[in-house]
């Protein structure tokens, strides 16, 4: 194997000892820069490490996201954690195993083939040798580069990977513990920060005495530039102070978004950087019937149930920050820069928060706590965000407009295909475009101006262009991407970035073409798919749902189909949804088939697919961030409804067993196909198609009334 | 104005001296060190803070502590008995009915109250009991299965 085929995490952290250590007898410390965000990654990575090392899972001490000792692996995002982080741990553990086995073989003067490992003990022909990883650790230096050439186990021999290992973090959580929010230290200083309601807003007036009265007990008020914080030994006092301050603060200046921000018309009015990519047959477009349709999605928010929280302590010139950031190593770097500290003096400890489905305010909270901690050396400062601020000041998943057009051949198959996308960037995480993207830092006096924004590069899966290229066999394809870099808010990543809206548009359009062709939507898709894995997933979902045996459904009921391969390189997922439509959509049943290659934690994979289905359904049926008076108008869950228990139908999932194929990221794979299937089912039930999201009762009523 | 308020938490009498308008959630977490109940919204909309007051699920995030004086409060920490898990906690683990787990503390107490009244709830009854709870990860169906399993386990031990 040549070095440039190593997974990115291993290229960035090439030394074995960055990943693994045998410090405590019987225990292996395995480091990971990937962090638990509710997806079960700690359990799956533990399975991979235990498998390759031949130790029991409980012997693995996975240290995740502790920046002084864990490898730096960027962000836990993009469904890369198993495919890249897990692949790195597998190679490292296989190499370490191999180094130890070679050493044992040399000492015992026997071939490696006579050796085996049980719970970390080395056996020769099944008999104890008195040697184990821990007794040998002093003889083998792991301060060497990973070669990536050690043999890894064959999937057919796996005993831990692909088998059920109960989630390691859940026992604490069902007991009500395990979250960053629950860390309690002596002499804690609680803090809350007043947020600017829009980018660049200046605080014109704040009645501080009224804020102090609202707090009930004495508080400290820190004001530097537009950064305003309230601190106290009492959490209740700072909660009350910040609630009062939010109502009392008067703001002016800055960039207030207009009321129609995010609408297709607004998007198409913005300055853009344009890129056209043609693939397929060159030359003139063929003649034939032209079909086109325009789709859109609004601004969305991730809406974790827990608000962001962080703790920080500044002592002897060194900063410690506890955060549920998705990128602890990146956060460390950008905290250091924003606070003027050498990064060696900053250490970030990952602690679990509520689910992360995209760029959230964890990093902002970490800055808040760190900044305040530096003004109170020796104290541990704890910040937790309010729900209102989570809606108003969080990174926002951007609105998009998508236009599709096709020229059909005589068989009504696309001879020419064009997709045109208007979208602000999908990533403004810390460090992106050289910006700290930390809210608190941007509020300080002399905050550096924002560098121009770009989107996630295509080689990293793209942002707006993620899944823009339909997976079907299209002889000619044109992608026009209008990147809108001057967006007045912090648009950033949400599960799948641009993918789910693109899949919604493409899969809706495919259904529209199938209708024109007079073909069944599944058969029409299959007629455009030659990739055997893609076909198998589509066929499996059809079989699972009894698609072709469908009897006539009662009035108002219909089924829809949606399919995609996430990022065109990760997992395949096909979804069938049955809906009942009266004035609103009621989900009756959902079926999903997926191919993720080698699956590490089968139940974890199902859980992710299921979660993606429910979140994807919620995105397209309910969700929209609105703006009024230049600020986010959603303040509570009433203004931002998500699907609830009473909205969720039974879900049936078939995970296609494919253990000899590499693991494909799957955490985001079911989101797009689900939304598309709901749109297609709705179109079938109504006899009319709604192309602008969300598919709310208001839109359905308007569509029904416009007939 | 701080005053003394006495009530029972998880079967043990407690007395706190605090502002009577303080939310019960703050008192539980800050004064009593019971951090199982979670802050999610502060406006009784997500259910992360749900506790039982005299056996009935109630939001604790904006419930003034003065109103629980003399009453019985149960939090997620009070579900496990004799060092063992409550059948609901075990069933959640068995079904892996959790992704991030933040909503589970509240869901657990609501489900415990349901099973207390109705050990064999239907899917619709479970949904009705848990509808005040938001979950963003999408573990709803697993939770429903876990509640049904726990109900069966409880009925088994009661026989």
Describe the structure.
The complex is a heterodimer of chains A (707) and B (159). With 707 residues, chain A is an alpha+beta fold. Chain A folds into three domains: 164 residues, Aldehyde oxidase/xanthine dehydrogenase, molybdopterin binding domain (Aldehyde Oxidoreductase, domain 4, 2-Layer Sandwich); 148 residues, 2-Layer Sandwich (Aldehyde Oxidoreductase, domain 4); 271 residues, Aldehyde Oxidoreductase, domain 4 (2-Layer Sandwich). Helices cover 29% and strands 22% of the residues of chain A. In chain A, the strands form seven sheets. Chain A has a seven-stranded mixed sheet, with helices on both faces. Chain A has a five-stranded mixed sheet with strand order 12-20-19-18-13. In chain A, α6 packs antiparallel against α7. The longest helix of chain A has 28 residues. Chain A is globular. Chain B is an alpha+beta fold and 159 residues long. Chain B folds into two domains: 77 residues, Ubiquitin-like (UB roll), CATH 3.10.20; 72 residues, DNA polymerase, domain 1 (Orthogonal Bundle). In chain B, 36% of the residues lie in helices and 16% in strands. Chain B has five helices and five strands; from the N terminus they run ββαβββαααα. Chain B has a five-stranded mixed sheet, with helices on one face. In chain B, a hairpin with a 2-residue loop joins β3 and β4. The N and C termini of chain B lie far apart (51 Å). The mean pLDDT of chain B is 96. Classes of the chains: A alpha+beta (707), B alpha+beta (159). Chains A and B meet through α5, α7 and α16 of A and α1, α2, α3, α4 and α5 of B.
